[in-house]
């Protein structure tokens, strides 16, 4: 049962026929079904996720990673505490987050939270723009068992032909460029966009505009931290999920105010 559980956890959202387990362990399907029933109960009690059973010749079981509300709130509270550390304030009022993005376990929890939020969506891939959003995108992609598409700031020769667009980002409304290889994304794909930080939403809107060049659609947008200092009317994006909200940064007093994001609302 331990090995069977590990097998399921390593293959989220993948339909696994009962014959796979029967052949793997040399056991009858009836015995496999009983073991899966126990695993299903444990997953639900522990808030690990769901174990869906599909009947019929083409049926099997599918593990859907999910994070319960209590676990989600615990993670978000820990995220807020870490982001509130005074030493994170950089010159210019910027917030240092790279250490958190470099913690695999922490990013795995964030990815599972996004996988929970977008579990019912029809998604083909996860997209982010280089570089700091990459760990979050891969963690989310792993929980959803989906490929990750990386948007680059500059075109690389090794990427082949690409589509490039200009977009406006930052408080100074500066013009930037982002590019995506034509081979990286199939036409008419349904894409989940994730990013580490969002202020007015210019970068994410740039990715939305880039997707339009591929006739692709946005299945959802998730951000680890959003800035609460931007009024809703000034934000370019309205439909998104955030895990934490940076409400204020006082560089002089070395104080950072962080609250849970709109995930819980």
Distance between the termini: 38 Å
Mean pLDDT: 93
Give, in order, the helices and strands.
Answer: HHHEEHEEHHEHEEEEHEEE
* Contiguous uncertain segments of 5+ residues: none
Q: Note the total helix count.
A: 8
Radius of gyration: 21 Å
**What is the CATH class of the largest domain?**
Alpha Beta
CATH architecture of the largest domain: 3-Layer(aba) Sandwich
Shape annotation: globular
Strand content: 25-35%
Provide the spatial order of strands within the biggest beta sheet: 6-5-9-10-11-12
DSSP strand tally: 12
Count of domains? 2
Helix content: 25-40%
Structural class label: alpha/beta
Note down, in words, how this protein is organized.
This protein is of the alpha/beta class and 265 residues long. The protein has 2 domains: 2-65, Winged helix-like DNA-binding domain superfamily/Winged helix DNA-binding domain (Arc Repressor Mutant, subunit A, Orthogonal Bundle), CATH 1.10.10.10; 69-264, Rossmann fold (3-Layer(aba) Sandwich), CATH 3.40.50.2020. The chain has helices at residues 2-9, 18-25, 29-46, 69-83, 98-101, 104-117, 134-144, 202-212, and strands spanning 49-54, 60-65, 89-90, 94-95, 125-129, 148-151, 162-169, 174-181, 190-198, 217-227, 241-250, 255-260. The chain has a 6-stranded mixed β-sheet, with helices on both faces. Strands 1-2 form a two-stranded antiparallel ribbon. Strands 3-4 form a two-stranded antiparallel ribbon. The longest helix has 18 residues, at 29-46. Residues 104-229 form the Phosphoribosyltransferase domain. Keywords: DNA-binding, Transcription, Transcription regulation. One of its GO terms (biological process) is negative regulation of purine nucleobase metabolic process. Belongs to the purine/pyrimidine phosphoribosyltransferase family. PurR subfamily. Residues 1-65 form the Bacterial purine repressor N-terminal domain.
């Amino acid at each position: 049962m331990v090995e069977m559980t590990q097998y399921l956890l390593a293959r989220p959202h993948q339909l696994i026929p009962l014959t796979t387990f029967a052949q793997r362990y040399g056991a009858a399907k009836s015995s496999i079904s009983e073991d899966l029933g126990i695993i299903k109960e444990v997953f639900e009690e522990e808030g690990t996720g769901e174990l869906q059973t599909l009947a019929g010749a083409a049926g099997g079981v599918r593990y859907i990673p999910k994070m319960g509300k209590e676990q989600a709130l615990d993670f978000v509270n820990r995220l807020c505490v870490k982001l509130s550390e005074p030493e994170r304030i950089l010159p210019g009022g910027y917030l240092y987050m790279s250490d958190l993005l470099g913690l695999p376990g922490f990013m795995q929890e964030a990815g599972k939270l996004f996988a929970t939020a977008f579990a019912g969506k029809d998604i083909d891939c996860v997209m982010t723009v280089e570089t700091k959003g990459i760990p979050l995108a891969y963690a989310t992609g792993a929980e959803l068992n989906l490929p990750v598409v990386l948007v680059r700031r500059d075109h690389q020769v090794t990427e082949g032909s690409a589509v490039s667009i200009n977009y406006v980002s930052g408080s100074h409304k500066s013009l930037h460029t982002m590019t995506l290889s034509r081979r990286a994304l199939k036409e008419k794909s349904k894409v989940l966009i994730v990013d580490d930080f969002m202020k007015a939403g210019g970068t994410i809107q740039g990715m939305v505009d880039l997707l339009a060049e591929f006739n692709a659609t946005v299945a959802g947008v998730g951000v680890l931290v959003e800035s609460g200092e931007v009024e809703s009317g000034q934000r370019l994006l309205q439909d998104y999920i955030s895990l934490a909200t940076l409400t204020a940064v006082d560089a002089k007093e070395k104080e950072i105010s962080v609250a849970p994001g709109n995930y819980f609302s």
